[in-house]
Amino acid sequence: MDDSIENNTADRDFVEYVVKQIVENPEEVVVEREIDEMGVLLTLKVSREDMGKIIGKSGQTAKAIRILLRIIGAKNNARVNLKIVEPEEE
How confident is the model at residue 9 (pLDDT cuts 50, 70, 90)? Predict the structure, then answer.
């Protein structure tokens, strides 16, 4: 895979910035970035209270973030996927 993809964290930074602007608990936002043969995988974790805001009505917010990530990925010749992790029961 291309070195520039590994060193370019614009996709992770973008998701982190946007999500922190949407949620009530920005300090609980965690974005992890992995690279494999499929491209870049961003894993997003937010607090339980903020899950609805991130997913949005009928999944529209999550879909919009994924579309913007696809554009960022295309600019960097990488496939970028976003996985939103369900918070665990406490």
Answer: confident
